[in-house]
Amino acid sequence: MPQETGSGYSRPMKIVTWSVAASAVAAALTHALAVTPALAGDRREAGRHEHGSGELRVAIDGNDVEVELEGPAANFIGFEYQPSTAAEQQALDSALATLREPGQVLSWPAAAGCQLVSAEVTPPDYGDDEENGDHDGHDDDSHAGDQGHSEIAALYAYRCSKPGSLDALRVLVFERFPQTERLDASVAAPGGQTGATLTPAAAVLKLRP
Fold it and tell me: Domain extents for the chain?
């Protein structure tokens, strides 16, 4: 698979068709969420929805790696209401297109030989969201089309030929989406679970305890 390399990291350049079952990785990801709730911070405590803050979860099981990224739509497009102008629709389409190219938001160590298996991006759901709880940092309440909170999520699966070289993940989300200010990250790997708070100034996630 063609790759863009630099500074010891690689970015898969092409999405390929899903070819392997990632059930073990999914189980590890679920386990990470169950056993390390504190590592994800308090963004979702009591349904809290905080602009600028998101979550990044990584599960490693042998050669298989799964990454989940999610956050308020405002982190990616600057607003949460349903687009009502051509410019707003373009902002949403552009953000989704970027997320569908994982190499734009994640950079793996080149030595790990990671190739993308699948990429799934979930766009905002603009339905009634009254049960989502409190909302911090919401500055677009006055917009007529804002009916509640909306989020964007992405799920990526990789196959890495040399998982022993998976020591760190460089996160480019802050560069692509400047309104994302913090990512509460968690990692589930054979060596155990760990976590960190990522920011634009500290955007490299250690994958080993």
Answer: 3-206
DSSP conformation class of 9: E
Cα 169-171-173 angle, rounded to 5 deg = 160
Q: What is the DSSP letter of 190?
A: T
Q: What is the DSSP string of 29-40?
A: HHHHHHH-GGGG
pLDDT in tens, 84-108: 999 999 999 999 999 999 999 999 9
Average pLDDT, the chain: 79
CA distance 137 to 177: 17
Q: 3-class DSSP state for residue 173?
A: helix
Strands (E) in the chain, as ranges, are 3-6, 9-12, 49-50, 53-61, 64-72, 106-109, 114-122, 135-136, 151-160, 168-171, 182-189, 192-198, 204-206
Record the tokens describing residue 148, joined without a space.
């509640």
Q: Which helix (H) or strand (E) is 77 found in, with range?
A: helix 73-77
Query: Which residues have a Cβ under 8 Å from the Cβ of 114 and sit 6 or more positions away?
Result: 10, 12, 65, 108, 158, 159, 160, 161, 166
